[in-house]
Write a structure and sequence with these properties.
Elements (H helix, E strand, L loop, with lengths): L5 H12 L3 E5 L3 E4 H17 L7 E5 L4 H13 L2 E4 L6 H11 L3 E4 L4 H9 L3 E4 L25 E7 L7 E6 H15 L6 E4 L7 H10 L4 E4 L2 H4 L2 H11 L3 E4 L1 H9 L13 E5 L5 H11 L4 E6 L9 E4 L2 H5 L14 E5 L8 E7 L6 E2 L3 H7 E3 L9 E12 L2 E7 L3 E4 L2 E4 H8 L5 E10 L5 E9 L5 H8 L11 E5 L12 H7 L1
Parallel strand pairs: 1-10, 3-4, 3-5, 5-6, 9-10, 11-12, 12-13, 24-25
Antiparallel strand pairs: 1-2, 7-8, 8-17, 13-14, 15-16, 16-19, 18-19, 19-20, 21-22, 23-24
Helix pairs in contact: 1-3, 2-3, 6-7, 10-11
């Protein structure tokens, strides 16, 4: 049977797995595939009874709970577009996200007064759902609903930083996710008895792999709340007790755990695969991880923009890669993608901007046609037919059959795994009264950890504490500069623009 939407795919998984555990929450509570399926049916019928229709948007205030995941599944079955948002973000940033997504309603798995107030301000319905609230809902699914959702139907919106100061929402289809699920299973040779960790925040791109490549392949996912992730010793002990076999996170987390001396051969001895991506892993620090676990685990360096459904390449690290200097290779782009490397003249080259094509690409940016048309362009070699190509902005080099990351064509960076447009930080800095010029650069600290540094020139006194306080009203914590440097004037290049290279030398 050809499966053309995620509701059908989920139905097949539930039929095969039934009473198997689908998700374990913080090592304590468990939910089976069957129970999660019934709970998602109850949410689905609740949505229908409250006037939600196919292609409406639902924003989910999700703490990684049964209700949170059931709501995601309900949306997929009904053809509703969901977006998980970071409810700890400043209200102004959440407001911008809601204004772009225009959600039909916000569903929460726990009451939050600030989010309710924000929803009231912009006239969006705020609903707090619990399992007891759904007891009156029909746990059965009208099977005909699944037939109304095509593979081209949007599945979710993932919001990332935007250079204009407004987050942009990447829109991913059912087709892209079905392709991604299959890719994950074959690439990692996922097994029925695997237990995959979910340490990534649910609103973070890496969580797409955690959720879809585990439960949609009939594999148990061990989900960890923000509180447990913030207590690394407790988290590692739970992973040890659950005998998790698959770890996926940004390198920053593994570096943090290594620096705390918490990673030992005993504590994560059940892990057979360490997969990491979202930022470069400094070789000196990667060697420490490799030396601890290389006898029994494989290591995969993965790469992929949000617009490519989380991951588009996974490179299995070899011993000779560890001994070389420089960043690990990206490997080759996955077989489910076509790609080109284009130089400044738009010609195919060994070194240049990576451009992706294929069924795993996003549909575009939600409610933002202008930015969609800028990033998703016609592939010129396919001039006889329509062929969408995504310009990643990533500079790469191809040598000896491997791709290596070189840098960016713009000011987008990865900080603690988060994709950040430096202009978004700068746009909010310049709003602060007294600041006449500003620029933000990204660098590494002495211990090789990612760091944001803001350079500001002022015409009246503004303290660093005041700046941070004002920025916290607009930006999430990971976008607040780690260091602020005060200058009389910022250096300029020949074009009159701020000379970021000169600022980098000053550090």
């Amino acid at each position: 049977m050809y499966i053309y939407n995620l509701g059908q795919a989920w139905k097949v998984v539930c039929k095969e797995k039934g009473d198997k555990t689908a998700i374990i929450f913080d090592g304590k509570d468990k939910i089976t595939f069957q129970r999660l399926n019934l709970l998602s049916n109850m949410v689905l019928n609740y949505l229908i009874n409250n006037g939600v229709h196919k292609t409406d948007v639902i924003a989910i205030q999700n703490r990684k709970s049964p209700i949170g995941f059931a709501t995601m599944l309900a949306c997929l079955k009904l053809g509703v577009i969901y977006t998980n948002f970071d409810y700890t973000n400043p209200a102004e940033r959440i407001k911008k996200i809601f204004q772009t997504a225009n959600p039909k309603m916000v569903i929460a798995d726990e009451y939050n007064a600030e989010i309710e107030e924000l929803c009231h301000e912009i006239f969006v319905t705020y609903i707090v759902l619990s399992e007891s609230d759904l007891e009156q809902e029909n746990p059965q699914l009208d099977e005909s609903l699944l037939n109304n959702v095509s593979e081209a139907n949007p599945a979710y919106i993932m919001f990332t930083s935007g250079s204009t100061g407004i987050p942009k929402g990447v829109l991913i289809s059912h087709r892209s996710l079905l392709n991604f699920i299959k890719w994950g299973k074959t690439t990692y040779h996922l097994q029925d008895d695997d237990v995959m960790t979910n340490v990534n925040p649910i609103y973070f791109d890496n969580s797409v792999f955690d959720f879809y490549c585990s439960v949609f392949n009939g594999i148990t996912m061990a989900a960890f709340s923000k509180d447990v992730v913030g207590s690394p010793k407790e988290m590692l002990q739970i992973i040890h007790e659950l005998q998790c076999t698959f770890w996926f996170s940004v390198p920053s987390m593994l570096i943090y755990l290594t620096n705390l001396k918490l990673l030992t051969q005993e504590i994560l001895k059940s892990i057979r695969i360490f997969s990491f991506g979202g930022e470069g892993y400094p070789k000196e620090l990667f060697r420490k991880l490799y030396n601890i676990y290389s006898e029994k685990a494989d290591f995969y360096n993965v790469y992929g923009p949000t617009e490519g459904t989380c991951i588009c390449s996974a490179y299995k690290v070899q011993k000779e890669d560890v001994e070389k200097e420089g960043l690990l290779p990206l490997g080759e782009i996955a077989a489910n993608f076509d790609y080109s490397i284009l130089n400044e003249c738009g010609e195919e080259a060994q070194r240049g901007e990576l451009c992706l094509r294929g069924s795993q690409l996003a549909l575009g940016y939600y409610n933002d046609l202008e930015r969609t048309q800028e990033a998703f362009v016609q592939y010129e070699k396919a001039n006889a037919y329509h062929c969408k190509m995504y310009r990643t902005g990533d500079l790469v080099e191809r040598k000896e059959g491997k791709l290596y990351f070189l840098g960016r064509t713009d000011n987008q960076i990865k900080h603690m795994g988060y994709r950040i447009e430096l202009e978004e930080i700068e746009n909010n800095l310049i709003k602060i009264e007294g600041i006449k010029q500003c620029a933000v650069i990204h660098t590494l600290s002495k211990n090789n950890l990612s760091k944001l540094i803001a350079f500001v020139a002022m015409d009246q006194k503004v303290t660093e504490q005041e700046m941070r306080g004002k920025l916290q009203n607009f930006l999430p914590g990971y976008m607040i500069p780690n260091q602020i440097c005060f200058m009389d004037e910022l250096p300029k290049n020949m074009n009159g623009k701020v000379d970021r290279q000169a600022l980098g030398i000053m550090i």
